[in-house]
Write a structure and sequence with these properties.
Blueprint lengths: L2 E8 L5 H16 L3 E8 L4 H9 L6 H9 L7 E5 L9 H6 L4 E6 L20 H5 L2 H5 L6 H10 L4 H9 L2 E4 L2 H13 L7 E3 L20 H4 L5 E5 L8 H10 L4 E5 L5 H5 L6 E5 L5 H7 E5 L10 H7 L5 E3 L3 H9 L4 E3 L16 H16 L3
Parallel strand pairs: 1-2, 1-3, 3-4, 4-5, 5-6, 7-8, 7-10, 8-9, 10-11, 11-12
């Protein structure tokens, strides 16, 4: 039986990478009878972790020592890094490669070549670090905190991070062609050979689908809605356009808008007291009901998403999607045959729902086959 080690960074606010790990990847590995161990490492709470990262002393980082100790004398065939930068030591891929263990990295964002992982300078999309170096993270204050931006510029200095990762990862798994193109651009800019990579799109999840009508959620504001609503599902932050969604609610007072998720902008938006905007916070079991009754899912992101898990989730219920043009979200929208429109075309209009048909089964079967091939060698 294959033995796969998965190294995953634990986010302060649960996001798509966590959902992917818990609801897609691990269930599929179990289905394929692939034995696995998951090591969860928290965000940079330990000051020594951050200090050694800034100084470039990767083998002294607590995350390096923790993973090394927990995997001692274990026989793994593969190690999969699931979006581990920057929480986990960049020296770990080299540590496993030296033991002849195949190293894989599942790419969910652009953090390999961009310090904030979003190709976003805090205000607008940006690709400068891909071509002219990490100093732009500080010069543009991409983290909206000068000290943090300065420190991350040091971490990425002389392209140290992408060079180390590209050298020691055997194969990259990209969730969209857009993501794969960013990876190739980074390799070309650094004058390195294009690394082996494969595109494995997110499947349309069947996890919550049944022939029965979804149970109404426990949140009274939603259960009492008399008409359909527009839905936001994700991190409540500036780069994800949470304020743009709130502005839509202001602009169309006769429509209802529902925001699900947590994040740094949540308090600010709640204080705006928009009467037709309802906040649900983090939700789980309510998803089927929300997707089924939403007029459309709105993705008002300011960044070029590498992909969009919420599009795959909503497609299972035939929910129309309002997507940002460019990037992986538009790619996912087109590949899944969603109904809806681009963000710039949104006028709070009515949309026809799409038919899930056998799409969910087909995408899950394709994902399972690609995953099986990934761990075959």
């Amino acid at each position: 039986m294959k033995q796969v080690l998965i190294i995953h960074r634990e986010y302060r606010h649960r996001g798509g990478e966590d959902v992917f790990l818990d609801e897609i990847l691990i269930p599929q590995l179990k289905k394929l009878n692939i034995d696995h161990k998951v090591i969860l490492l928290p965000s940079l709470k330990n000051p020594l972790e951050f200090l050694f990262m800034v100084l470039g002393l990767e083998k002294l980082r607590p995350s390096y020592q923790k993973v090394k100790n927990e995997t001692r004398s274990k026989d793994f065939s593969h190690v999969l890094f699931n979006n581990f930068i920057p929480t986990v030591s960049f020296a770990l891929p080299g540590f496993f490669k030296a033991q002849n263990i195949k190293t894989l990295m599942w790419v969910h964002n652009a953090r390999l070549s961009c310090a904030n992982g979003l190709l976003f300078n805090g205000q607008t999309p940006c690709h400068r670090c891909l071509t002219t170096g990490s100093r732009w993270d500080f010069l543009q204050n991409c983290h909206q905190n000068l000290m943090q931006s300065f420190l991350y510029s040091l971490v990425y200095r002389f392209n140290r991070v992408p060079k180390k990762i590209l050298k020691n990862i055997d194969q990259f798994v990209c969730n969209s062609q857009f993501s794969q193109n960013i990876l190739s651009s980074t390799s070309r800019h650094l004058g390195l050979p294009i690394k082996e990579s494969v595109v494995i799109p997110m499947p349309v999840s069947m996890k919550s689908i049944s022939t029965e009508s979804p149970t109404p959620p426990l949140h009274p504001p939603i259960a009492q809605l008399s008409k359909q609503f527009y839905l936001f599902m994700g991190r409540v932050s500036f780069e994800k356009g949470a304020d743009i969604f709130a502005d839509f609610a202001n602009k169309y007072p006769n429509k209802n808008f529902v925001m699900c998720g947590t994040g740094p902008m949540l308090d600010e938006l709640q204080n705006r007291k928009i009467s037709n905007l309802i906040f649900l916070g983090h939700i789980t079991s309510e998803k089927p009901w929300l997707y089924t009754h939403a007029q459309a899912l709105i993705i008002p992101s300011r960044v070029a998403e590498t992909a969009s898990l919420v599009i795959s989730e909503s497609r299972a219920y035939g929910t129309p999607v309002i997507y940002p043009k460019g990037g992986g979200a538009e790619e996912t929208f087109n590949s899944l045959g969603c109904t809806g429109c681009s963000l710039v075309e949104f006028k709070a209009q009515e949309f026809a729902r799409s038919e899930p048909s056998k799409l969910a089964h087909d995408t899950e079967n394709k994902f399972e086959n690609q995953l099986s091939k990934l761990f075959a060698n």
